[in-house]
């Protein structure tokens, strides 16, 4: 008898493909970590091992394209816990934003020295595959962008538009922000710097045609001047508290204005690929859509987070849900859902940043001072279940969920073997039981965070198994095997 041709056969699943509306029942054959065949019926004898999919939905492994592993805790430890949380929710690729300055490795200096250390600290620590986006902070970092793209496999760069004049957790003066960013007297983290970052990205595109499609600049769009003025106003006015106060202090038009400025700079610099991160409000999305019409030569991508889709300012988790841009009133949340349904949003991410409870302000259960609490929270483990649960209620088709959580970010960011369930792609899968309801509880998550702003939310659709390149990484409530994640030097080889 001939050797079985397949290493693994996943039988009896309903295959969700991002580019096809119909979901077909079938079997998936895996060889050498990649999908070898997808067919209605593949004989068990053709494989060394058979896994019974029990009729579950098979989604492409989620590509969580916006995370912050190692921001508030040591990278090597954060990577283990937070990637374990990721695979518990069907995430098989995490892309983390990294930068110099406070938090992360808590230092300045050149990426030529810092980034190899980031890779060293990451090695053998992730349960899913991983890559990094980098933020040019000092003027000298602009000159390093080409080397980061060509030798380190990082063709995606980030700009934090408000960092020049406003803090990560609240108001801060220019000098405080210089210390936060650890920049020298000759550095200016301002609009001109952002322009030069975009010019450098355009230059890399021109010089390296093979990379061009995957060179992109991502922006956190909020204008510091507006945040400063409105924070002062809101802090004087005691009628608003908690998340509602924080949202008013960072009002939606500060996002809309920043989007317009970013778009014009992209047009001016011929920076073709621009990703507008975590749009949180109607005004932000409307500005982004207006800019896409105004500047058709710029290829925009619009991102929203699962936090902004599942939480509003009345969330009982209060300060636990402090994040930038802020959690918004219900009208904005419903507007974001409409934008998702109408195809105006390109992908959904978690913006996962494990942020310990004690830094969320004093008081248990998120009852701390909203102005003192740190910003950010984890949620990668609820990305797929959250989008599935709330999206299905609103009529979001399954194949669009696969596009929003895997295919679209994989294309943009040069993850060419990720994001689909088809021959040649990495055998990254999330098996989801669409009928299994569960109540979110931080106690059930492997994340090191210890609380979640989603606590108590009832979700329908739970990930029961996650496969990374053809091996189980998570099954029935526990991680399987040691961390096997690989660093993804982008663009990765094609299928
Ligand atoms: Zn973020």
Q: Descriptors for this entry?
A:
alpha/beta, TIM Barrel, five-stranded parallel beta sheet, 495 residues, globular, binds zinc ion, nine-stranded mixed beta sheet
Low-confidence stretches: none
The CATH topology is given as TIM Barrel
Strand content: 15-25%
- Overall structural class, as computed from helix and strand content, comes to alpha/beta
From the coordinates shown, what is the CATH architecture? Alpha-Beta Barrel
State the shape: globular
Largest sheet data: 9 strands, mixed
End-to-end Cα distance, whole Å, is 30 Å
CATH homologous superfamily heading: Metal-dependent hydrolases
Record field, number of beta strands: 17
CATH class group: Alpha Beta
Please indicate the count of domains. 1
* Ligands and ions found: zinc ion
Radius of gyration: 22 Å
Mean pLDDT: 95
Number of discrete helical segments: 14
Assign a percent range to the helix content: 25-40%
Kindly describe this structure.
With 495 residues, this protein is α/β, with parallel strands linked by helices. The mean pLDDT is 95. The protein has one domain: TIM Barrel (Alpha-Beta Barrel), CATH 3.20.20. Helix 3 packs parallel to helix 5, helix 7 packs across helix 8 and helix 9 runs parallel beside helix 10. It starts with 5 loop residues before the first strand and ends in a 16-residue tail after the last strand. Helix content is 33%, strand content 22%. Strands 1, 2, 3, 4, 5, 14, 15, 16 and 17 form a 9-stranded mixed sheet that branches. A 5-stranded parallel sheet has the order 9-10-11-12-13. Bound molecules: zinc ion. Zinc ion (ZN) binds next to loops.
């Amino acid at each position: 008898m001939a050797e079985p041709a397949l290493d693994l056969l996943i039988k009896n699943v309903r295959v969700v493909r991002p580019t096809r509306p119909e979901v077909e029942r079938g079997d998936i054959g895996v060889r050498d970590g990649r999908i070898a065949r997808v067919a209605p019926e593949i004989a068990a004898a053709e494989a060394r091992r058979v896994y019974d999919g029990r009729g579950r939905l098979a989604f492409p492994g989620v590509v969580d394209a916006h995370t912050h592993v190692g921001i508030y805790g040591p990278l090597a430890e954060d990577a283990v816990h937070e990637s374990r949380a990721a695979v518990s929710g069907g995430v098989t690729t995490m892309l983390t934003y990294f930068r110099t300055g406070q938090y992360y490795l808590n230092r300045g200096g050149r990426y030529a020295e810092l980034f190899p250390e980031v890779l060293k600290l990451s090695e053998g620590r992730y349960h899913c595959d991983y890559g990094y986006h980098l933020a040019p902070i000092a003027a000298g970092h602009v000159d390093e962008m080409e080397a980061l793209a060509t030798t380190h496999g990082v063709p995606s760069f980030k700009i934090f538009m408000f960092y020049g004049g406003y803090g990560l957790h609240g108001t801060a003066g220019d000098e405080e922000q210089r210390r936060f960013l650890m920049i020298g007297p000759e550095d200016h983290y301002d609009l001109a710097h952002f322009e030069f970052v975009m010019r450098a990205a355009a230059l890399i595109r021109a010089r390296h045609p093979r990379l061009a499609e995957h060179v992109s600049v991502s922006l956190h769009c909020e204008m510091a001047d507006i945040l400063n003025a409105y924070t002062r106003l809101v802090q004087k006015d005691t009628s608003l508290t908690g998340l509602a106060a924080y949202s008013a202090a960072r009002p939606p038009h500060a996002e809309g204005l920043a989007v317009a400025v970013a778009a014009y700079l992209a047009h001016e610099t011929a920076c073709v690929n621009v990703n507008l991160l975590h749009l949180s409000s109607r005004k932000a999305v409307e500005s982004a859509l207006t800019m896409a019409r105004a500047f058709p030569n710029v290829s925009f991508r619009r991102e929203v987070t699962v936090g902004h889709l599942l939480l509003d300012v009345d969330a009982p988790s209060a300060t636990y849900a402090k994040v930038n841009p802020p959690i918004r009133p219900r009208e904005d949340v419903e507007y974001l859902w409409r934008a998702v349904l109408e195809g105006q949003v390109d992908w959904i991410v978690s913006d996962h940043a494990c942020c310990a409870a004690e830094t969320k302000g004093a008081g248990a259960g998120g009852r701390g001072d909203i102005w003192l609490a740190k910003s950010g929270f984890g949620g990668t483990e609820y990305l797929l279940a959250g989008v599935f649960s709330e999206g299905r209620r609103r009529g979001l088709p399954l194949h669009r969920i696969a596009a929003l959580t895997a295919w679209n970010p994989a294309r943009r960011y040069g993850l060419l073997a990720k994001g689909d369930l088809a021959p040649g792609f990495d055998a990254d899968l999330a098996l989801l039981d669409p009928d299994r309801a569960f109540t979110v509880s931080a106690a059930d998550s492997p994340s090191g965070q210890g609380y979640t702003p989603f606590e108590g939310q009832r979700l329908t659709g739970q990930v029961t198994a996650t496969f990374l390149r053809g091996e189980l990484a998570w099954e029935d409530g526990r991680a399987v095997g040691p961390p096997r994640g690989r660093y993804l030097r982008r663009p990765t080889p094609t299928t």
